[in-house]
Amino acid sequence: MAHETIDDYHAALAPADRAICDRLRTAITRALPDAEAQVWHAHPVWFLTGNPITGYSKLKACIRLLFWSGQSFSVPGPTPEGSFKAAEARYRTVEEIGSKALDLWLAEARVVQWDYRNIVRNKGRLDRLG
Description:
By secondary structure, the protein is an alpha+beta fold. The protein has one domain (6-129): Alpha-Beta Complex (Aspartate Aminotransferase, domain 1). The protein is 28% helix and 27% strand. The chain has helices spanning 6-11, 15-31, 99-111, and strands at 36-40, 43-48, 51-58, 63-67, 79-80, 87-91, 113-114, 128-129.
């Protein structure tokens, strides 16, 4: 099902999943107040200057928090995901969210970025930003 807004996305979730997403959204919005938030490829995603930074999605058994450049973070925690630079954390309950770790990851997400915005133009090559 396609959702037009992040509120629509949250409204369609089961209460336990919505609680996780509400907590993540609050933390992301607080840490990245200048980021543009939108539903992108059917999931909430936050962008800085057009570059995807973080977002979350409902998987079968959990909520996945994705950091597009998370494999380059110096703070441990997120696990590698995919063949580029992304890393993820998975949550089954809201209690599993470590606020201190999440805040550290979000702080790193602001400064550690790979250029996903131009990946097609660069023919699949990722360049480090900043």
